[in-house]
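Case study 2.
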Amino acid sequence: MKALVDSETDRILGFGMLGIQAGEVASPVQIDTTGGLPGTALRDGMFSHPTLMESLNTLFPPFCD
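Prediction:
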């Protein structure tokens, strides 16, 4: 999984993932970008457990602040 984030606005410019259940993870990223939210919204989000979407919390580290 990889994301390209604008360093000034923290908005997600691109996202890609290869692996099992990639669609499960791509959907909230698409919602985030459509809504114009920063990557920190996904990083700080609380997702159901257990799920692959929890990996979004670590994809967007504190440097997105």
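The two ends are 20 Å apart (CA to CA).
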